[in-house]
Amino acid sequence: MSESKKKKQKTAEGVDDGAGGVNPWTGRPYTPKYYEILSKRKGLPVWQQQKEFTETLAKNQTLILVGETGSGKTTQIPQFVVEAGYTNDGKMCVCTQPRRVAAMSVARRVADEMDVNIGEEVGYSIRFEEATGPKTFMKYSTDGMLLREAMTDPLLSRYSVIVIDEAHERTLATDVLFGLLKEVLLKREDLKVVVMSATLEAEKFQGYFLEAPLMRVPGRLHPVEIFYTQDPERDYLEAAIRTAVQIHACEPPGDILIFLTGEEEIEDACMKIRREIGNAGDKVGDVKVVPLYASLPPQQQQRIFDEAPPPRNGIAGRKIVVSTNIAETSLTIDGIVYVMDPGFSKQKVYNPRIRVESLLVSPISRASAHQRAGRAGRTRPGKCFRLYTEASFKKDLQEQTYPEILRSNLGSVVLQLKKLGIDDLVHFDFMDPPAPETLMRALELLNYLGALDDDGNLTQVGTVMSEFPLDPQLAKMVCVSPQFKCANEILTITAMLSVPNPFIRPRDQQKEADDAKAQFSHVEGDHLTLLNAYHAFKQNGEDSQWAWNNYLNFRAMKSADNVRSQLMRIANRYNMNLQSTEFTSRDYYLNIRKAILSGYFMQVAHLERKGSYLTVKDNQEVSLHPSTCLDNKPQWVVYNEFVLTTKNYIRTCTTVEGAWLIEIAPHYFDLSNFPACEALQVLQRLYAKKK
Ligand SMILES: Nc1ncnc2c1ncn2[C@@H]1O[C@H](COP(=O)(O)OP(=O)(O)O)[C@@H](O)[C@H]1O
Ligand SMILES: [Mg+2]
């Protein structure tokens, strides 16, 4: 009997129930852990529906599945697909996740559930990290990575079943995948697509997917009592901490989940909660306070699944999870009874008029608020504390969050679609078509970068750019770097820009941290400072203790190193000339700065006479971000990022020369359509001088 037939027979029997069974995937006896998890899996609502799911999938090409968070969709459905035999003839099942954290965490969990090693039979793929192998038949992937795969394999022929999970999130990549899949489904009758979601406008999805059948997983939600504040809270962070401490002192046992917006805020809250509860001493139970956000190392992320601490003096212990939106639907934490919802999350916003995309702390939607509250009722009746007024809930929050495609810069997506051969973007079947102005801005950007010609066709450099999993401007910078004899250095800078901020600055050691950073600081700018930090890290043998002593985030540095080697692999595929200018040459840094400008000439700011900066052409008033190492305000800077807060900042800035602007990007700094400003006058003089 062939290997695949053997598997087929075993899988047809479904999962193994009794002790002493042999795992068909590995040939090894099941471990006790397998049986332990199995008993939990059997309690999941979706468990009852395996037969119904398998039969419906057999009869239809597309299937929509809706069920409350925690009902077992993400972990069980791909296993049902495998057990139904769809992966027996060498094809795979892929399940997409909007978030890297979720893809990794769920893949690990499912590998445990199936009693196999992660990266072998079950794997994951996220940007810059591929944990799959020749034996992999099921994987979790970010939606962005699957989209990227479509560029080299437009029919996604490696997959027999594609599960698009968390469809309600309507991320940019998920929306584009929807459009692509609709076309692929017509060309591949053997392909099946399952669309899964927590809450979703089911009719809208059914309409879009040509009346695909809808399956509902019956919820098992306990009632959740909602509390609003009487008056608006001036400081939601302080209110959240205060409420958590009160709950811990007064309410019956049950874990707490607090939604905040980002890493810094979350770490700050964790520290304060620990301190305040610590001050109460033995009068209250023990607590375990755990943060959860995307850039947290995986082992620490796993701590959200730990048990609450044991009772102390007869008072029950409690787990307090302080999380970003990840815990809203992506990851289910059992045992939560109290939820604190301040009503905000970090959301992407894009203003096509001034071409600025930024992450902004914004009010959530009523749909999100509903999801958050639901997290309290997973195990038993719970309570949700909304740190805003009921009037505000009804009046200020919008019903649904806008799909990301309506609030994003589409440069990357348009480049990818062009690579996929989709030329007619206007008639592409988007579930919600993006604004024409946004599409136009994306085409304009790609044209200025030379990725598209004047007829909108992909150029040679555009093709190479699309191969890099980077924003078009970064990709362009990499592609031109050999011309400036600095590809090695540009790859490093690109890698450093692609990982979380490597410079650590603890609140109580700011001076020490700043002194440490000053060792790497380069007078000409932050990009070069990143380069110096990387070189120093390598020279010190990638030592974690050294990184710690120098206030560098070791994980970020290691991850930059990994990103760099992956970028290098792509560069080698295209025979890019990876050389450096002599370090002693005065052109060493100059060339690097020119290469940066070649990618980012659309992000330049000019120092005005009154002492502030104005972004060139868009004329937005900005300041250098306080983290910059530039201490003399240079006349021209190129910047990596526009940060919108109460004040507009440009972050990661490097000095450039005015003369380079008209040398490197004359087509962009064409004065015939240039708004009146001081920069215009300077450029006019520079052009005159050149003549
Ligand atoms: N890494 C993990 N460790 C422990 N339990 C987990 C882990 N990941 C998921 N679970 C559990 O698996 C169950 C099902 O979750 P999931 O399949 O994600 O549901 P859904 O996708 O419907 O929201 C939940 O009870 C959750 O707590
Ligand atoms: Mg899920």
Textual characterization of the structure:
40% of the residues lie in helices and 17% in strands. Helix 18 runs antiparallel to helix 24 and helix 19 crosses helix 23. The strands form 4 sheets. An 8-stranded mixed sheet has the order 4-3-5-2-6-7-1-8, with helices on both faces. By secondary structure, it is α/β, with parallel strands linked by helices. The longest helix has 20 residues. The site of adenosine-5'-diphosphate has 16 residues, from helix 4 and helix 5. Magnesium ion binds next to helix 4.
Structural class: alpha/beta
Low-confidence stretches: 1-13
Strand tally: 21
N-end to C-end Cα span: 80 Å
Number of helices: 26
Largest sheet: 8 strands, mixed
Whole-number radius of gyration? 27 Å
Helix content: 25-40%
- Shape category: globular
**How much strand?**
15-25%
Primary descriptors:
691 residues; alpha/beta; 8-stranded mixed beta sheet; 6-stranded parallel beta sheet; 26 helices; disordered N terminus; binds adenosine-5'-diphosphate; binds magnesium ion
Question: Which secondary structure elements does this structure contain, and how are they paired or packed?
Answer:
Blueprint lengths: L2 H10 L19 H10 L8 H10 L2 E6 L5 H11 L8 E6 L2 H14 L8 E5 L2 E3 L6 E5 H10 L6 E6 L7 H16 L4 E6 L4 H7 L5 E4 L6 E5 L7 H15 L4 E5 L3 H17 L7 E6 L5 H4 L16 E6 L2 H4 L6 E6 L2 E8 L4 E8 L2 H9 L7 E5 L3 H6 L15 H9 L16 H13 L11 H8 L4 H9 L6 H11 L12 H9 L7 H14 L4 H6 L4 H20 L13 H14 L3 E4 L5 E3 L5 E4 L11 E9 L3 E9 L1 H7 L13 H13 L1
The protein binds adenosine-5'-diphosphate (ADP) and magnesium ion (MG).
